[in-house]
Write a structure and sequence with these properties.
nine-stranded antiparallel beta sheet, 146 residues, globular
Length: 146
């Protein structure tokens, strides 16, 4: 009986995750939260949007914007940025917290930030030399990954 309940729960969870994965839909930039639109205008004024989509998960909604340069920005439901990935260029300096920018320029002066990701626990920064630095919310370095 216990195995049957576990199996039923697993099938139910798989069904929920499969259903929620199909809730992505293309949107126009004007359908993004106003805060996200302002972010794009301020930090990517010369970029052309190739694709924008809204991703609905079980309990959350996020937005993703991909530019023709292959750069990508992910936003939370309220329009705050979650991730900025500039594959072939550098992340705009105004996006990078000052303490992180100072650390990178001091210890890795010949590199640039190509990706930054933030969540409730930390900031992750990827540099042009391939290193990934993780900072806590007080901007203390807590991990380096290569």
């Amino acid at each position: 009986m216990k195995k049957l309940l576990i199996l039923a729960a697993a099938v139910f969870a798989l069904g929920i995750s499969t259903v929620s994965a199909d809730n992505d839909r293309p949107i126009s930039v004007s359908e993004l939260p106003e805060k996200a639109q302002q972010f794009i205008r301020q930090h990517f004024p010369n970029e052309k949007v190739s694709f924008a989509k809204m991703e609905r998960e079980l309990f959350d909604t996020t937005y993703e914007v991909i530019f023709t340069s292959s750069s990508k920005v992910e936003f939370l439901k309220n329009g705050d940025w979650k991730e900025v990935d500039c594959k072939y260029s550098t992340v705009p300096a105004a996006i990078i917290p000052q303490q992180i920018a100072q650390y990178v320029s001091q210890y890795y002066p010949d590199t640039s930030v190509v990706q930054i990701d933030r969540d409730k626990r930390d900031y992750e920064v990827k540099l042009t030399n391939g290193l990934e630095l993780t900072f806590d919310l007080k901007f203390n370095l807590i991990d380096i990954d290569d």
